[in-house]
Amino acid sequence: MQRVVKRSFSLEAYTLEGGATIPVTLGYETYGTLNEQKNNVILVCHYFSANSHAAGKYSPDDSLPGWWDGLIGPGKAVDTDKYFVICTDNLCNVQAKNPLVITTGPKSINPETGRSYGMTFPAFTFRDMAGIQYELMKQLDIRHLVAVMGPSAGGMIALHWAVQYPTMMDHVIGVNTAAQNPIMTSFNVLQHAMRTIKLDSNWNNGEYSEQQEPLEGLHLAIQMMNINAFTASYQESAYPRDSKEAAPYACIETMTSYECALYDKIAINIPLIDANHWLYTARATMMQDVSRGFDSLEEALSRIQARVLMIPCEQDLLQPPEYSQKVVDILKKQGKEADLHMIRSDKGHMAGVLEPHLFENEVKAWLKAGVQIGSN
């Protein structure tokens, strides 16, 4: 794939679902070539802790490509020889300190005060993200999409696209995702993580300085997400116990080797992540509900005209497969074209990002069906 270039777009004013109006600037990347008819476009939405770098490399020297590079590229399931792929950064992107991420959120400067928003930044939802991406498509004069797709939070955004802009796309593909975030996940990961950040003595109601950030609270919040994103069997193999070590048995303050291994792994990404941005994104995930504003989930999903493919993982603890099955069952009952492809992996939720080979054939076939590209 050609060298990837980061771009940005801005909206002078966007009114969020909660009613507040703010200026927005977000980053985005593209892969492949936009055809003359502008009808070969696929929008990829990123997951909770990712960003718009979904595929390729900025430089040949980059150690790793984008997070869904196994799925996106020349000759791959999302074939950039055929499709023009767009991926944007989200509002409140957790990697707010990553120089390659362009996002608007608590760390941004409020033009009305000249200071960072902090906790005065308004709440956002994944419906808002779909709306902001829709405005980008209008800026690019793209009037129809082959597909909107994504894993986890990205799939949540894709489902909002399907409900809010039903004639805008041919396909929606959601991987390890849900139309409504499971209450268990809202409690066990998201609410607990938000409270952990707030309990850090350095959080200071979100008014912390770069010299005194709530890093320990943030570290634990990320660890909570990491642990639940994989299965128990994966954790046993990734962080094996050492039954011969003596120090943790002699001193309660001494961490085991597997505790140290996980702590150090989480610590690698901490320099890129902002605690308030993590908190806001956790809240947006918690509030995921495509039925808001409708009398029922059935009524919301009845608006969908796109073909919907849901890809859950049997071992997913964060977005259990019954939530994907529920979406498919409702759509089929309504006479719509929907299907479910179950994958199995001890990587659980993260299989949707780390193991695209488990569903690449299904994605390729789903995209191919019933789409005419390049014709007027």
From TrEMBL:
NCBIfam families: PRK06765.1. One of its GO terms (cellular component) is cytoplasm. It is an enzyme of class 2 (transferase). Its EC number is 2.3.1.-. GO terms for molecular function: homoserine O-acetyltransferase activity. One of its GO terms (biological process) is homoserine metabolic process. It comes from the Bacteria. Pfam families: Abhydrolase_1. This is Probable acyltransferase.
